[in-house]
Write the C-alpha cells for this entry.
Amino acid sequence: MDLSNAYREMVRIRIFEERVLECAAAGQVPGSVHPYTGQEAVAVGALAARRPDEWVVSFYRCHGHALAAGVPAAGLAREILGRVGGVCGGKAGSMHIADHSHHLLGASSIVAAQLPIAAGAAMAEKATGGGRAVIAFCGDGAFGAGAAYETLTVAAVHDLPLLLVCEENSWQDHTASDLVRHRTPGQIARGLGLDSDEVDGNDVAAVHRAATEALARCRASRPQVLVAHTYLRHFHAQLGPQPPGEYRPAAERERWLARDPLARVEAAVGRERAAAIREQVVHELVGVFADALHADQPDPASAATAVTAAAWPSGATWPEAVTVPEPVA
C-alpha cells in the first residue's frame, strides 16, 4: 500500500476525532462520543483492501471507519454536531452513522448488534453471486455477547463472505477484558470453526496485508475473523464538558502510546513529508468544522422523515392500540 496515502487518512481520522472531542467538551455534540484515536491503522489498513462496492458495517466507535470508507469529512462533522447537511440529515448523531453512497451500511450503538446486520448483508451478497465480501468491525467486548456467537455460527454454517475485524484494545469500558473472559476473540472464532488471524493493529501495512488475504478468502465464501491488537489513546466514551479521569495503568498507557500508529508511519514516509501532510489535513479540517458549527440545526418537523423505507401513506392512521388483558389472579 502507499504509506503516504495511508498516513494522510490516519492523520485525518486523528485530527478529526480530536476536534470532535474539543466540540464535545464545549457542549456542541449531542449525546456521547466514542473516540477512535489510537486505532486509526485498523480502519485505514482494512478498508484500503476492500472493493469500493463492498459493504462496511460499524459500531458506536464509527467515525474512523466512516472516514476510511470515503465518507466526506464535511458531511460527517455536520452529522456528529447535529446540523443540516449531515450524511443522515443531522439526526443520527455520533453513534449511528450511515452513508449508502459510500457503502457504509450503518453503525449500531448496541454491543454486537451490528454483527447480525453484517451477516444478513453477506447472505444477500452470496445469494446474488456478486463475489463481494462484507466487512464488519467490532470491539473485543462484542465477543461476550450472544449475538456474536449466533452470527459467527450462521456465517460458518452458510459459508458467508463475511470479514469480521475485531479491534482488540483489551478494555471494555472501565473493565479490563481479561477480567470478564476466559477465551480471546481469536480462540472463540477458531472454536466456532472459522479461520482467524491476529495482527499488530498499530501497523497499518500489516493490517492491510492481513485484510487483503482475508478478503480474498471471504470472496470465495469462507468467513474470516481478523483480530487487530491496538489501544485507545482516549477514554472509552466522553459526554459533555467533563472528560472522565484516566483509570488504566500508567505503565500500560505509556507502553502503548510509545507504539502510536501515526508515529510508526511517519518514520517510513519521512518527517518532512509527514509534516506537510499534517499541515494540509489540519487546514482542511479547520474549515470543515468552522463550516459545520455555523450550519443550522435540522427542522424538528424532519424528525419523522427518512425513518421508514417508504413514506407513510397520506391519510393513513396508526393501528389501533392492542388491549392487554388483566393477569389472572
Notes: Residues 3-304 form a domain with the Rossmann fold fold (CATH 3.40.50.970). The chain is about 40% helix and 10% strand.
